[in-house]
């Protein structure tokens, strides 16, 4: 082929794929792809169980086996939504000798990068002077960090394949050296099925907060979005990514489409309830923020026992807990207002999960909560070793 035509072909090819990339990143393009590829590219674990990775029929030898970081049994992974009390739980582990507690590894401030993390600390995070101390000398994490982890792909199933995320988390774990790694996340609640499968021996802690108080905390005092506000005006008050999460997850949970909700609180409650169900289903210990701050001693005994950490640390940790006022939602709207939105959302969730394949399969096989792997009302599989 003459060089002239080859250059034209190369240029047209580049332009074509540039336009294609822009199209699939746009809302309409992504929706079209989702509809066209629905169920076509899903890797179903039950279809792969018939396969096994057997040794080749030839004597090829083998390299010495190394201990996989993902198989370590001393890893603690904390999952909680924004403004749920996860920072408090992280800070408690930060004060346990022998533990290295890493704050939100996926955060956009890139704690491992001194040039991007800044110096700002949220004043509502009591007793916290910085978030990045544990990341000192971990600049190499930037080579594996992916900005898209905080923008999209918030759902990962047990059978999904994400080697870069796995490697990044493993590298954070490796940074702890001989100490016990504790990683606190605000962006893994819908990735917990993958996390449980990928780090099978890790201890997963789940913390949640009353959805109404959490809503008021998400809005913050200087961004009081009114009870009679409209979705079109919510973006300016959305400081904790409610719209970003809903826009990504609506392809799996269609009721998260902002065009179909009456008030942003419904989006918040949908995400809260789904996160709660995922956390309860895949964690080893699930606790509420309220029980942690009102009954710290009993709650910490349970948490540390789940992590096989000496209970002698409970008393000094309790002194670090400064309970904030609870029930702030009462100054935002009355109980009837909240209950109306929550009841609507629960009705939608019940209908959605009643029609979910996993729920129908469980009903057809007579599966009950007493079996090794139970399916709760949400259609989510709960591991038999879950401790609540």
CATH architecture of the largest domain: 3-Layer(aba) Sandwich
In percent, how much strand structure appears in the residues?
5-15%
Number of strands: 7
Radius of gyration over C-alpha positions, nearest whole angstrom: 23 Å
Mean pLDDT: 85
Main sheet strand line-up: 2-3-1-4-5
Order of helices and strands: HHHEHEHEHEHHHEHHHHHEE
Distinct helical segment count: 14
Number of domains: 2
CATH topology of the largest domain: Rossmann fold
For the record, the CATH class of the largest domain is Alpha Beta
Instruction: State the helicity in percent bands.
Output: 25-40%
Main sheet record: 5 strands, parallel
Distance between the termini: 68 Å
| Structural class label | alpha/beta
- The general outline is globular
> In terms of per-residue confidence, which ranges show pLDDT below 50 for 5 or more consecutive residues?
362-388
Q: What labels would you give this structure?
A:
2 domains, 14 helices, Rossmann fold, disordered C terminus, alpha/beta, five-stranded parallel sheet, two-stranded antiparallel sheet, 388 residues
Quick take:
The chain is 39% helix and 8% strand. It is an alpha/beta fold. It folds into two domains: 68-208 and 284-323, 3-Layer(aba) Sandwich (Rossmann fold), CATH 3.40.50; 213-281 and 328-388, no CATH class.
């Amino acid at each position: 082929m003459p060089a002239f035509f080859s250059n034209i072909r190369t240029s047209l090819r580049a332009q074509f794929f540039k336009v294609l990339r822009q199209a699939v990143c746009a809302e309409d393009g992504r929706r079209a792809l989702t509809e066209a590829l629905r169920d076509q590219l899903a890797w179903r674990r039950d279809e792969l169980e018939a396969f096994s990775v057997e040794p080749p029929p030839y004597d090829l030898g083998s390299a010495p086996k190394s201990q996989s970081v993902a198989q370590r049994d001393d890893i603690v992974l904390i999952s909680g939504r924004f403004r749920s009390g996860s920072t408090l739980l992280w800070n408690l582990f930060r004060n346990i000798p022998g533990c290295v507690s890493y704050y939100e590894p996926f955060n956009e401030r890139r704690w491992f990068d001194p040039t991007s993390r800044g110096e700002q600390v949220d004043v509502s995070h009591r007793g916290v002077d910085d978030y990045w101390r544990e990341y000192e000398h971990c600049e190499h994490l930037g080579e594996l960090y992916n900005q898209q982890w905080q923008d999209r792909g918030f759902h990962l199933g047990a059978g999904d394949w994400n080697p870069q995320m796995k490697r990044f988390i493993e590298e954070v774990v490796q940074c702890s050296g001989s100490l016990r790694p504790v990683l606190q996340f605000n962006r893994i609640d819908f990735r917990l099925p993958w996390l449980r499968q990928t780090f099978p021996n890790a201890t997963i802690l789940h913390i949640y907060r009353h959805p109404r108080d959490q809503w008021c905390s998400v809005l913050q005092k200087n961004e009081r979005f009114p009870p009679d506000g409209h979705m079109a005006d919510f973006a300016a008050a959305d400081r904790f990514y409610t719209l970003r999460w809903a826009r990504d997850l609506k392809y799996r949970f269609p009721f998260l489409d902002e065009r179909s909700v009456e008030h942003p609180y419904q989006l918040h409650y949908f995400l809260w309830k789904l996160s709660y169900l995922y956390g309860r289903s895949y964690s080893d210990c699930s606790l509420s923020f309220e029980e942690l701050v009102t009954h710290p001693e009993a709650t910490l005994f349970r948490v540390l026992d789940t992590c096989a950490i000496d209970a002698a640390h409970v008393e000094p940790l309790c002194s670090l807990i400064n309970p904030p006022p609870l029930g702030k939602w009462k100054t935002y709207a009355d109980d009837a207002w909240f209950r109306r939105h929550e009841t609507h959302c629960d009705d939608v969730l019940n209908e959605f999960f009643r029609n979910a394949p996993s729920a129908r399969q469980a009903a057809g096989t007579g599966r009950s909560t007493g079996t090794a792997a139970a399916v709760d009302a949400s259609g989510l599989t709960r591991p038999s070793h879950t401790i609540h």
